[in-house]
Design goal:
Subcellular location: Membrane
Helix content: 10-25%
CATH class of the largest domain: Mainly Alpha
Number of domains: 6
Largest sheet: 6 strands, mixed
Catalytic activity: L-seryl-[protein] + ATP = O-phospho-L-seryl-[protein] + ADP + H(+); L-threonyl-[protein] + ATP = O-phospho-L-threonyl-[protein] + ADP + H(+)
Strand content: 25-35%
CATH superfamily of the largest domain: Transferase(Phosphotransferase) domain 1
Organism: Eucalyptus globulus
Main location: membrane
Distance between the termini: 48 Å
Number of helices: 15
GO molecular function, one term: carbohydrate binding
Number of strands: 48
Shape: globular
């Protein structure tokens, strides 16, 4: 698991191989580094550590220290994770003796805290410590005294020094977990940045009251708590590993667990490559899920989620059925309810609109508001169903505990004796034709009408009944035969039973659409081999067509910005598609959530989608028109790389074919005008949809937003058009500091959007040209001024 996380970090913040470096000696006043694509860095004398800039996506950088000789370039300290630096920013040891990180306009972004002045020189030391030294050769400031989430051999943390976990795997801003030696001498781990005085936020303590003074990571690889005189009080990690043979680090990870890792300094003799990091210590604490119990707060995971212990004792946070992640970039930040809550207007209303999902060994410890005797699980379920405030009921030993939102301190653990009954709103689908039961009901109704009608009408209805029966039989026959799939795609075929087991009987729903539902699964019982299994609704002609379209459209594609189709099930009436699992959900969740995503990350996502569409339109053997580009159909993987998904409406073109006639497909609001004019459609319909998506990425809001104070801002593309022609593009991003400081790129992106959404499809550029515009490979010409622009949107 450690190597997987490090691989993700490598993808996220790659260090260019062409990086320049000042390698030896002290850094004199006036020395500087500039944040750009050819980042320079300051090396330690042995070349084992570097201090400099690391990229966070496109055009955003942060100060860091990392292991230079390890191919993963593992980061051990970061300076401005909460305030990323735009391209062109500079870290400088000024001539007046200060270390300052400034943006391209000279605005200060970061400097050491507390403030340091009178610096004579700086140095990156071989132990991984960056120091600022005064005239008398005394260290005025050092990174060892201001750690972020990692400590290194020879590092000592004195009383009051805090170590903060980062926000998530890929976000180096401060998270909520931290530890420090308190005034009482205890080394304590806290589940919140601002702990309460009652100690309920502490989830692990050293129990060294009044004697603990410093935390030491010695050169033998031990991390321990010591008294003022250096006496060992308590071992935190006990393994001894020679620093001469191994690089070492100990880290409070984003999940709140403290772990120690080693990495061999020598190459593996058989592979000739460096071996990755290995975890050598027991995690502290060993079970975070049961260790964090807060009187006020969310617990180990966020509100409305629950904690389970995965492989390597690593906690995992998940949402119960009917809930989805609040922040798709951080699974530990809680979940929100997806369905309308139980209506409390009136007694016992809507009881027929809800059902329960059963979760054994699960509880939310601090969310009770009422309990009562319940002889059976069914009686507990009925009590919760009759109570509009009840979101979850816990049945345990003849007692029913009612929980209301928000749910806190959720955990699924064998030590939990109760069974959680999760209340969810039933999907209103009873009117749809779903199977033999409805078919029999239909025939019974027709038969009843026959008995009460005239002879002529009876004969007529008898004929209709026969034809309906023949239709059902014909459809049953067709659906029971597997669809012919081209086996040359090289995809794996699965049995229905295999996918049932992989999804634990289709237990964890990830989402749903017009033609089916998507569930999370694990192939071959490997905890990290997650997949998304799309179960198409059976017995409908459209779902059959979607199955054929998705397999045909994506089966032969191979591009990093397209979701990979791993295989399918084509057995009897069962049509299932197995995709790679995208851990960060949809772009819609990411873009329109509670917090605004990073501007530079949005830039990268726009380029990802453009590259994927360019590949579909121009580089496939069979050119593909997606027909339904929207944020809900863009998924994000673990490193927030955007990938196009959901090819159920896609249209495949023959070789040398550029246009086709088809019925309206897609989602209103993203549809090109030609869909409504009975005109042949081409790949330019995807260009139009991408234009709407692009302006949503720029402004971080939906294209249509009826509840705004200014009427001109209701339709985003209208507003963007007005702002561009008024010369006031800054208004679109005025509340976004990162985007505002990158206004030239914002203007270029807005101009690109206006080209994409031209009413005349001939005027729209190709996706290949759009990609070049976004990446600054070509200039963006001034978009045409069209009098019909507003009315055409």
């Amino acid at each position: 698991m450690a190597s997987v996380i490090l691989g993700i970090l490598l993808i996220l913040v790659p260090l260019p191989l062409s990086a320049k470096a000042q390698t030896h000696g002290n850094l004199t006043l006036g020395s500087s580094l500039t944040a750009n694509d050819q980042n320079s860095s300051w090396l330690s004398p042995s070349g084992e550590f570097s201090f400099g800039f690391r990229r966070m996506g496109t055009g955003a950088h942060f100060l860091a220290i990392w292991f230079e000789k390890i191919e993963d370039k593992t980061i051990v300290w970061s300076g401005n994770g909460d305030n990323l630096a735009p391209e062109g920013s500079k870290i400088q040891l000024t001539t007046d003796g200060r270390l300052v990180l400034a943006d391209p306009n000279g605005g200060e972004l970061w400097s050491p805290s507390p403030t340091v002045a009178g610096i004579a020189y700086a140095a990156m030391l071989d132990m991984g410590n960056f120091v600022l030294v005064g005239q008398n050769n005394v260290n005025l400031w050092e990174t060892f005294s201001q750690p972020t989430d990692t400590i290194l051999p020879t590092q000592r943390l004195v009383h009051g020094t805090k170590v903060n976990a980062r926000y998530s795997k890929m976000n180096y801003s401060a998270g909520r977990f931290n530890f420090k030696i308190g005034d009482n001498g205890n080394l304590a781990f806290y589940a919140t940045p601002d702990p309460l005085n009652d100690g309920s936020d502490i989830y692990w303590r050293s129990n060294t009251t009044s004697s603990g003074f410093q935390l030491i990571f010695n050169q033998s690889g031990q991390v321990y708590l010591a008294a003022k005189n250096g006496t060992l009080l308590k071992l935190i990690t006990s393994d001894t590993v020679p620093t001469s043979e191994f690089y070492q680090r100990a880290i409070l990870e984003y999940d709140g667990v403290f772990r120690q890792y080693i990495h061999p300094k020598m190459a593996n003799s058989s592979s000739g490559r460096l071996i990755g990091w290995s975890n050598i210590s027991d995690p502290v604490p060993q079970n975070l899920c049961t260790s964090v119990v807060q009187n006020i707060g969310s617990g180990a995971c966020g509100l409305n989620s629950y904690c389970t212990l995965g492989n390597n004792l690593r906690p995992r946070c998940q949402c119960p059925l009917g809930y989805t992640l609040l922040d798709s970039t951080n699974e530990m930040n809680g979940c929100i309810q997806e369905f309308a809550p139980h209506n409390c207007n009136g007694s016992r209303r809507e009881t027929d609109q809800f059902d329960f999902y059963k979760m054994p060994n699960t509880d939310w410890r601090q969310s009770d508001y009422e309990h009562s005797a319940a002889p059976t699980e069914d009686s507990c379920r009925e009590a919760c169903l009759a109570d509009c405030f009840c979101a979850v009921a816990i049945f345990n030993g003849g007692t029913c505990w009612k929980k209301k939102l928000p749910l806190s301190n959720g955990r699924m653990d064998p030590s939990e004796p109760g069974t959680a009954l999760i209340k969810f709103r039933i999907n209103n689908s009873t009117s749809k034709f779903t199977g033999n039961g409805n078919k029999n009901s239909t025939l019974i109704i027709i038969g009843s009408v026959l008995l009460s009608s005239s002879v002529f009408v009876n004969l007529l209805l008898l004929l209709i009944t026969y034809l309906i029966y023949r239709s059902f039989r014909s459809r049953d026959s067709k659906l029971s035969r597997p669809i012919q799939i081209n086996q040359a795609t090289g995809m794996e075929t699965f049995t229905y039973q295999e996918l049932q087991e992989a999804t634990d009987e289709f237990k964890e729903e990830l989402g749903r659409g017009a033609f089916g539902k998507v569930y999370k699964g694990v192939l071959r019982s490997e905890d990290t081999n997650f997949v998304a299994v799309k179960v198409l609704a059976t017995r409908t002609g459209e779902s059959e067509k979607e199955f054929e379209r998705e397999v045909s459209a994506i089966g032969r594609t191979d591009h990093k910005n397209l979701v990979q189709l791993l295989g399918y099930c084509n057995e009897g009436q069962h049509r299932l598609l197995v995709y790679e699992f995208m851990s960060n959900g949809t772009l819609a969740d990411f873009l329109f959530g509670a917090s605004r995503p990073n501007w530079y990350r949005r830039i990268e996502i726009a380029c990802n989608v453009a590259r994927g569409l360019s590949y579909l339109h121009d580089d496939c053997t069979r050119h593909i028109i997606h027909c339904d580009i929207k944020p809900q159909n863009i998924l994000l993987d673990g490193s927030l790389t955007a990938k196009i998904s959901d090819f159920g409406l896609a249209k495949l073109l023959m070789v040398n074919q550029t246009r086709t006639i088809t019925g309206v497909r897609g989602t209103r609001g993203y549809l090109a005008p030609e869909w409504f004019k009975n005109m042949p459609i081409s790949s330019k319909v995807d260009v139009y949809s991408f234009g709407i998506l692009l302006v949503e990425l720029i402004c971080c809001r939906k294209n249509y937003k009826p509840k705004v104070e200014i009427e001109a801002q209701i339709v985003l593309v209208d507003w963007a058009y007005d702002c561009y022609h008024d010369g006031s593009v800054l208004k679109l991003v005025e509340s976004d500091e990162e985007a505002s400081s990158d206004i030239k790129r914002v203007r270029r992106f807005v101009m690109t959007t206006l080209w994409c959404i031209q009413e005349d499809s001939v005027m729209r550029p190709t996706m290949k040209k759009i990609t070049q515009m976004l990446e600054r490979a070509v200039e963006v010409p001034v978009p045409p001024v069209s009098s019909s622009f507003i009315s055409s949107i």
